[in-house]
TrEMBL record:
Secretion signal span: 1-22
PROSITE patterns linked: FE_B12_PBP, TAT
Residue ranges of domain Fe/B12 periplasmic-binding in the record: 46-340
Keyword annotations: Signal
SUPFAM superfamilies, A to Z: Helical backbone' metal receptor (SSF53807)
Superkingdom assignment: Bacteria
Record's protein name: Iron complex transport system substrate-binding protein
Amino acid sequence: MRMNRRRFLTLAAAALSGPALGAGPRAITVTDMAGRTVELAAPPQRIVLLEARDILTMSMLHPDPARLVVGWAAVERIDSDDLHSAYSTGFDIALVGRQTPETVSLEGLISLQPDLVVATAYMAPGNGAGALSERLAELGIPVLFSSSFSNDAAGKAPSPLEELPRLMHMWGAILDRRREAEAFLTFHQQKIERLQKRLAGAAPRKTYFEVGSLYDDCCWAVGRDIWGTLLEAAGGRGLDAASSPWVAKIQLEQLLAEGADVYIATGGGYANTTRPAIGPGLPEAKARAGLERLTGRPGFHLLKAVERKQVHGIWTGLITAQPLNLLFLEVAARWLHPDRCHDIDPNETLAELNRRFLARPIAGPCWVSL
């Protein structure tokens, strides 16, 4: 009898001290965009986004991403009141910072008791070795980077298209939505391959692709990296004078001398009295009026692209939200090479993204033309 009791107690102690099958959270290992491998105790339920527009990437994989977000920063860079409202209405998402790293409130962030902070190289400099990341590590709060490169960094930025699979795999692991990530990447690759076939052998067309199109300023042209890389993938090329990595300030005389075939401006919902109001849910007529106003700046009537009515505009989200880069590629390719890409339909692609992937649909206009 005593032996049976001792045996029972031994087995009971082992059961209590050992892992319970099927009970408790499951740890996950994630490799972020900075190449860091981080272990999370469980799929996170209280995420802070230091770049609020990351919710658009989450939205491609998760049916209700805002439910997992307790705080965010840089909401202005979503650049759409329509999308900001779609993701924040009904949720208490605290603002922990504005558009620059020094505005991030460490105390406010910690008070939210996050189980994950998703940062970028710009909003948390150092890619894990900076003061913010180190302080969070001391507190046991894991940090992952959704971007490892900022416009303050030296060297060549990675291609957004090459980085996209790693980004989606990272979010697929974080959200425990790996199958959804693979489905999106398969869809994306099929669209890219189709576009590449149409553009094979096409001569790149010189394009004035303007970063931050403002009514009272000129002339900021895309550089070689990021925006410039995407322009090249769409069958275009930047200005000869825009040789810097990110953006180049071009004098009007130089812009006129370049003789660009096409002019692509940018706009959005944020501060849209100073630039074209192009973006989800905004009136298309207002967007087009904004483009007209840009072409009315001093000397713009002399631009080759303006004379030939090759003037277009995009919502910045098509560039800054990597999963939406596909839409920019398709619409820009149609503008640059209409003879080759007449059957490429970015409106159809947006409809499919809304139907198959996005938690909240993205409305137009995301692009306009004169």
